[in-house]
Design a protein that fits this description.
Blueprint: H1 18-100
Length: 101
């Protein structure tokens, strides 16, 4: 029990009394609590923003899938029409050559 009490040193080299040291620790604690609350709020905002962006991303993916499906259906029907058109004119050309000879 022969330990010496060392007064906490201030940044400028002055020693603080017990009340001042306690007051400084209380201020630090309050500052840390405020910072922690700000960070919690920011985390909650970021989580909600992430959720919104994920939802929008899924909507855009669904929309893109629908557009690709409708484009492939249009391409499929236009290729069928083109095939019928080519076969019809090919048949007419063949008939024309046969009747000419």
């Amino acid at each position: 029990m022969n330990e010496f009490w060392k007064e906490p040193m201030e940044e400028d080299g002055l020693t603080l009394g017990p009340e001042e040291a306690l007051q400084k620790e209380i201020e630090k604690s309050k500052t840390l609590k405020v910072d922690r609350l700000r960070l919690r709020d920011k985390i909650e905002k970021l989580k909600s923003e992430k959720s919104d962006l994920s939802h929008k991303n899924q909507q855009l993916k669904d929309r893109l899938t629908k557009l690709e499906n409708s484009a492939s259906e249009k391409t499929g029907s236009s290729s069928k029409n083109s095939l019928v058109f080519v076969l019809f004119f090919g048949f007419l050309a063949l008939l024309w050559f046969i009747t000419r000879n």
